Amino acid sequence: MKVAFYTLGCKVNAYETEAIMEMFMNKGYEIADYDDFSDVYIINSCMVTNSGERKSKQIIRRPVSINPNAIIIVMGCLSQLKAKAMLEIPGVKIVLGTKNRHMIIEYLNEYLKTGELLDKSEKLENDERFEELEINDFQNHKRAFLKIQDGCNNFCAYCIIPYTRGRIRSKTKDIILEEVKHLVSKGHIEIVLTGIHTGGYGEDLTGYSFASLLKDLEKIDGLKRIRISSIEITELDEEVLDVIRHSKKIVNHLHIPLQSGSERILKAMNRKYNKNNFKAKINEIRNIFDDISITTDVIVGFPGETEKEFQEAYDFIKEINFQELHVFPYSRRQGTPADKMKNQVNGTVKKARVHRLLELSDALKEQYMKSQIGKTKSVIIEQEKDGWYIGHSKDYLSIKVKSEKYIIAKEVEVILESIDFPNIVSRIKK
Ligand code: SF4
Q1: DSSP-based three-state secondary structure for 91
Q2: From ligand 1's centre to the CA of 282, what distance in Å?
Q3: pLDDT tens for each residue of 82-97
Q4: Which of 144, 204, 283, 352 counts the most CB atoms within 10 A of its CB?
């Protein structure tokens, strides 16, 4: 039997799909491309934004045009909250949410036996246990994304995730360490720690924290790089910073969501810090690591955001001097506090503000790239494109280099020469 997969949304979804694909391969299923004929189509859905939800529905509707008898299975955040609506889409036979994905083959067999539509989505309990999914080898990836935790307890006013993913729960330490050793034995030299709230790892555990995990990962032979996909400023406490300070493997790049640089908006968003906290911690980090690169997430057009508050945010972002910004227009999500707020900002204004921040992001990134020209960096090569090998440096620059030898998945030393935005052109260090 053939099975095809499509993943929307975040790295956590990507990890889960990869783990489930492996389960099907181990059961002898043949993996097909999503645009080709298949018997079963599995979609890991997203609803973090309107566009994520819209795209998920488009993708779910696609297979019946290829195979009218397709068995479509929907999982993920969208089906966690809207299971019934998913079952109304032609071809959808089985729905599950953000738990019990390890049961997916049993559910398929149940459907094949009964032919009845199956809604296997379940309410997330507060004491939900972490669902142990594992990956033995990443297909086509040179940097292995490793899901270490699920859920979030923060309830930021704009965010639907705590309702689709439940409360914080952490993966068992021993399983993580075994999985990393296995991935290293398969040739992966960089591990990207990811989660719904990565820095929240360990909050539900006794006597074992995110810092403890980083320390244990540091001891794994053959692992060269540890990257934290994203971490809240409040989680960069003394314990974590001390581990990073003494680490030889944690890369000099941190992705720290700011979301807004306006004091009133930060409060309205229910973020857990104010501008002074954020700035003070960034200064502390920069005092510890003189070569750290910091990227961030910013939402524009949060309900009530005035032009003056947007300018306040713009100036604060410039002052913090991030390497790069990920900019998102506020997306109204039913069920979140922000959805009920007055003074929703209109789309045209949001678009203009996104554009201005993206321009700022490019300027900040170019400025950072200029400051790195002439330096030597190690790059893990991830792909070959138009005769160039391309990969990321530790400080998360996209670097391209020419090489006679095949160097995919290799770590190479290069000297940065010039900017070919958004890449930096380099040469192999002899
Ligand atoms: S920290 Fe806030 S933005 Fe991030 S997942 Fe939790 S609620 Fe959403």
Answers
A1: coil
A2: 20
A3: 999 999 999 999 999 9
A4: 144
